[in-house]
Design goal:
By secondary structure, this protein is an all-alpha fold. It is built from 14 helices and no strands. Helix 2 packs across helix 12, helix 5 crosses helix 6 and helix 9 crosses helix 10. The chain is globular and about 60 Å long.
Amino acid sequence: MAAAAGVGFLFWWRGPNWGEVGHAFASVKWRWVAVAVGLNLLSVLVRAVAWRTVILQAMPPPHPSFPLVFSAFSVGLFANAVLPGRIGELARVAVLSRRLPEQEGAWATLLGTVFAHRVFDLIAAMALIVFVLLTAHIPDWAVTSLIAVVIAGVGLFSVAVLSARQHEFSDLGGLGSLRRLVRLGRHGLGVMREPGQAALACSFQLLGWACQLFAVWTAMRAFHIHKQVPAAGLVLVLMNVATLFPLWPGNNVGLLQAAIAIPLNTYYNVTRSIGVAFGFGLQAIEASVGVGVGLLFLAREGLSVAMLRVMPEATQAEVPEERGVSSGARTEPESARARVS
């Protein structure tokens, strides 16, 4: 909260002309806003399809239907938008595992599918970074973070592929938190052993990011910023850098607007007031889908924000028992661990 207060003070003291910011909102072309909202919704739908593709390769039948997967994915987006940290990744696992009581070790398997899904997300992010590097100018302050993203993407993809080859279940007793988490991730990496399905899931993620890219481009037109697609790519990259580690609820409001407005002013001669207004508008467009749709499915699942705050830790996840070990070998506390009622 102290960091949020500091950003708010800087915006008031050294910020843009707020009268011009208000004028920028007054002249918004709402038809382009509607198109941007639609593209963001399409992006969520496509990325949910990608996650279900991963799930189908990781779990035996019966598989969760797409409406169930989309519901869980939407609740996860909502949690990531309104709560600090990345609690949404655990939230979507918790929501979906509640609907799969007949699946042995559903929590652990779904946790692994989230890991695989995020690996494909990093591949799409790296493709966007390459596109921006070739067509636009990236500010120096963002370069270090982007290098870290590329290294992490290559490393996590390699780990995912190698771990998927060692997919036998094993006893996790006595393992430390980090080793336990890595072992859990293997249970949902079945898609990595199927090149065709992995390529399909990755394609859906790429399509989802493409929808986001053009959502940013149409939002720019709504605020009378008539620049080419590479400028929208730069904005999308900087958005993700600014929200990589949410420091306070609201996906770093203030920091995000500065990260967008300053480069647009420096490289594309967009006035800072219009850039800040566009930053607020773009964040509102993103939130209208993540928060709006997420709230609907949160209510549908009978959950509340307070329940999202107490999601179990990843290292408490239920793990499929070792092959050859009877179900009676597990104690009652172990079988009940990490379930959300």
